[in-house]
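Tokens in:
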């Protein structure tokens, strides 16, 4: 199943593989474990709002000192099933005044 916005700015593909693979424990975050990631957001603002609503996080937002996000922000929140959802704010991200 493919979900997409009309302008093509966002695409999400949901796939089902046969045969079924063994279940993965998302709390272990093994290399190659899939997770959702969202970019172009104010990580600290979304983190504050989601934790105020009762969602858990692996940590508070961090500012990586190296790698492609150096100078930006990132955090992993946990969905109700314990799956990690990554929030990424690139160092050159410019917020919008739109609400």
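Residues out:
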């Amino acid at each position: 199943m493919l979900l997409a916005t009309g302008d093509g700015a966002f695409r999400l593909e949901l796939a089902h593989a046969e045969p079924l693979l063994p279940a993965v424990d998302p709390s272990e975050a093994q290399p190659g474990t899939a997770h959702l990631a969202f970019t172009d957001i104010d990580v600290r603002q979304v983190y504050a709002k989601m934790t105020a609503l009762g969602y858990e996080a692996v940590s508070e937002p961090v500012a990586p000192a190296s790698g492609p996000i150096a100078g930006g922000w990132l955090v992993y929140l946990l969905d109700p099933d314990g799956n990690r959802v990554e929030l990424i704010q690139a160092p050159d991200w410019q917020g919008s005044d739109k609400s």
